[in-house]
Amino acid sequence: MAKFLPRLFSGLKFFIIVMALAAADSLVLQFLFEQIRSKYIVEAALSYHQEFVPFLEEIIESRKIIVAGNQRQLPLPTPTPAQPLPTKIPPTPTPPPTISEANLYNALQDYRTANSRTHLVFEENLCVYARKRVQEHLRRLETLKPDETPLDAHAGFQRDADSGELFRVTDMKAVAENLAYLPAYTTATQIIEWGWDSSTAHRDAQLSNDWTHVCLSGKYPFYVGIFGRR
Length: 230
Known about the structure:
Number of domains: 2
Order of helices and strands: HEEHEHHHEHHEE
Protein name: SCP domain-containing protein
CATH architecture of the largest domain: 3-Layer(aba) Sandwich
Largest sheet: 4 strands, mixed
């Protein structure tokens, strides 16, 4: 046991020396860290005064009240041009249907063929009178009174028959008229097969084999059929 004591004391001495050096190193490191941290704080403070403080002073200076004569006003930001509000574009109205005389004539011929009736000849003189009656009804619609209907109930046709003008214009000995006011219809077939076919008198006129010539004319929403025989 005695021979190990010198070695034990020597080991303890070495341990004490190492711990002392470690403590000294720790103090040195702490001192160095404090020095570095103090230096960083000083540099940050200098940077604050050199850069940020002038920036704040510039902002404060720009917001100072401007004195002009006896008036005091704050500088206003540059105005931005107002954007115009979008204009609502009204929808384009649906144009009225255009139904030609040829469309009406062909629809009538198909209708008569389906009902086993004779073929009618297209007659221009009848068209002249039919167009006149269409224009009369268009003018009537422009000045229509609340107690009046769009159609004249064949009053104009009777007037021209009584005066003889109907027969002079058409060059026919016998003439019949179909009238229609159909703003909801858009095809010739609808006018012939839905409009006039729904009325007994009109249906009989457009299916009669007593007639040899015909012309149908119209301008939305009025349609006229003139049937004749020489």
